[in-house]
Amino acid sequence: MKKIFAILLLTVTALGFAQTSEINWVSFQDALVIQKKAGKNAKPIFMDIYTVWCGPCKLLDRTTFVDEEVVKKINSEYIAVKFNGEGSDTINYLGKKFTNPNYNPSRKGRNATHELTDFFELQGYPSLFILNNKGEKIKTLIGYRTAAELLKEL
Known about the structure:
The protein is α/β, with parallel strands linked by helices. The chain is built from 6 helices and 7 strands, in the order αβαβααβββαββα. The chain has one domain (about 20-154): Glutaredoxin (3-Layer(aba) Sandwich), CATH 3.40.30.
């Protein structure tokens, strides 16, 4: 019985160490609140604008956003946001309200474009933005990036 317990304990411990950490994603609205509360000491926002049908967006999630160095860098230096560019969130940003008035919840693939993506002048998916501690866009990356490529940009 002791051997079984020891093997089980070692297996659980090994699995715990094998798990990769994850990026601490929050909603855009929550990120803006976090920045406001932190004031001058606020971290910039790293924002991934994606869609549910976008292949390169899914590839980012499966490869780049699980890389240990990327996770560590984004979690330590940014407030991480995932935003569906065709979703139904209501966003209050820079004194304006952004919605997706033509959003259709019954659609499984492509949907209407969110007003915030138009405001950001989105040119394609995925789009990665960095917003300064005032919430203003300071950098845009369009398209898939490997972990090494993204780390160079950050």
